[in-house]
Here is the input.
Amino acid sequence: MESCDKKYRKIFFRVNRNRNVPVFWLVFSLLLVVFSGCRHPLSETKDHRVIHVPLQAKWSFHQDGHKKAYPAQVPGTVHTDLLRNKLIPDPFYGTNETRLQWIGKTDWWYKARFRLPDSILERKHIELVFKGLDTYAAVRLNGHLIVKADNMFRTWKADITQWVSRKENILTILFRSPLEVNKKRFEEQPYPLPADNDRSKIKVSVFTRKAAYQFGWDWGPRFVTCGVWRPVDVVAWNDEKINDFSLRTQKITKTNARLNAQVEVLADQDENITLRLFAEKYLLEKKSFSLHKGINRLSIPFNVRHPHLWWTNGLGKPYLYRFSVDVVKNGKRVDKKSLRYGIRSLQIVQKPDSAGSSFYVKLNGVPVFMKGANYIPQDNFLPRVSREKYREVIHTAKRLHMNMLRVWGGGIYENDEFYNLCDENGILVWQDFMFACSFYPGDSAFLNNVKQEAIDNVKRLRNHPCLALWCGNNEVRVAWDRWGYQKKYHYSPADSAKIFHDYLKLFHQLLPGIVHQYDSGRFYWPSSPNSAPKGWAQEALTGDMHYWGVWWGRQPFSAYEKYVGRFMSEYGFQSLPDYSTIAAFAPDTSRYLVSPVMRAHNKHPAGYEIIRQYMERDFRVPKNFKRYIVVSQLLQAEGMKTAIEAHRRARPWCMGSLYWQLDDCWPVVSWSGMDYYGRWKAFQYRLQKLFAPVLVSPVYEQKHLKVYLVSDRLQEGRARMKIVLEDFYGKKFWQKTLHVSVPANTSRLIYSKSFEKILQHYDKNKIFLHVEVVQDDSLLAENNLFFAPPKALVLPKPKIKYTLHKIHGQTFLLLSAPVFVKYVALLYPDDTGIFSDNYFSMSPGQVKTVRIDLKDAESQFKQGKIKVMPLY
Ligand code: BMA
Here is the structure.
């Protein structure tokens, strides 16, 4: 019989295909439901269903050796529990970090009391699922050891059927200090395994499968925390349950996508069941299986006709389908799992050429330039990162025209929330495995632990369309090739051979093997960057590149134009966070450079010195601390402008630009564009233009003026480009208007002219070149080019006029000045991106409109909380 479900299936996909007739089909399908007399596919009774619920428990914690217990929060960490109980001061304040190191050296007990309802107790199997235990944890239920955990990244499951009580249950968890657990291991290690991030004499971070940044990083404090950092669930079932449900796209054509659903069903005995696969609530496929006792891997191939593809931010809709699968036995549903899935094809194309080989993302057949950043965990105490914070970060990435984030290997495999948001917003994820900047052991216990960690996380993340690739580690290979550790740590040839052998075992065998087995088809890249023993010039020719000649190498910003690789996965420059962020961790008396508190909040060994050195090159260094903060941010913005424009101009040679680093894990001076409180630095505002779909980029090189148009749009367009050489009072010396074609998905040199003769008539400190591109009467892109650094420019003192306007409930600030203004900073203590633009320049006479996303913008102005500050 052709079931009514098959009819649903046809309807579902026609509605999807032809968006003009959904009302008709909706009405038609409703009528079908009413008149065909068939049962709704989801109207099953609930009798034997698998129960999957969060554990409801009352938690407390205490220090080992102490009796007094305090209320605890799960998910949580010991530091945040201590803080909530007012037992420690704020770890981020002042120099408290130093005083609180004892917490990481201590063992901690967590205790939960809970009762389970009859519905759970009646089931044949009851399991506790710990989604995250940080890290060395012995878990006991009513006195029986049920889990011995040693990896923060793994999911730990315990069958508690035989231990669970009908009355109250007592769960205890002893968290042992990683420092204590691994001390012996560290001492017995025949050769040192470097971990320069690890700010302790006894470096155990490489042995500990725990987020490396928690041992300290060059932007993060050392807080070796512990706790139940992810939720605990109770799962109860009778004879069978779905362990896992995953989808894989096999082939996409214009009219069809061929997919395969894989379902892992755990069964108590040999028996017959039916699997049903739904798209939304419409049945797609129904198949009967004979299960055997144990784990059954079942698959259902299926088609989606006229699929809506998943696209990245800027290119189209990141279309998501909701698929679900259920197990039906004797006419009753026993378990169900759902997921959202995007249909898309994605390859990382490495095509050899005369220089090396390409490295780019091809999405649905289209080469896409990756614009984005490196993402680090948003807090040292991970459970504090709320849904709202995840939402804000990903929405910010979207607003900044990003289409890729790299989840860096010294942090964590992120929460589901993060990937869900990336799926929804068209942000691809470059996913590192959690290894960074160190060498790792190669013994079988360590490798088995990592293997299980990789399986857990690959299985958890593989259904996300946002997942572009897996990468073995961050900078382990380059550390081996170029950081001189062999010499520094006096490795014998035998030690060296062993370390490298272990490297290959882990990153060239184990991890790619897991990806191949559990996520076949997804690209695996062993290390970021992969290999270039000869240095940056070589690194630029193939694969991805971390360019740190600027900052670490103290090269001028112009070096960004020279070292442009095939895919820039790291480069960056530090700046100070806003004054209000500094005020949150530094008392009045410490708000100067460089007080002990300020020093404690820049973890780079020479951070302040490097900032100053670069500032002296390009800017007049302000004496006033508040101005210094702003100028440090402008400096960062200028450096990043040089880098990003060079990367984008160089496409298709270069096909990605991910700066270091999107966010912060505490209030700190770092490379981020957005600080711990979500406050935007000048650079982040600038990114709106730097990553905009269309960029106009003028450069003066080899005595030529060159103007490039870079577009990520897939369609060509026409526009008018105006290039004007003028002085800061608006006097125009030379201009050119061109009718140009805005190229599709590439970079094009639009205009090139020998310019030396023109320039020689003018004082380079008194002129600038303004380019604007106008399409259909609206400004598509604009940019300025200077012929001297900011400090040399002879800028007139501006008088900025501004007025506030309210239109349809929105507040707009209109600003103008009769002369050129190099930077206008709009300062507001809680500037989380509330201005539509900031730290911008204004041409003489230009009227600049800025939208302010603040309910009481007018009163904030009146009270002087929003300030307009010209810098010249
Ligand atoms: C990169 C990263 C991080 C580091 C950053 C800044 O190499 O991979 O390890 O924090 O540089 O130094």
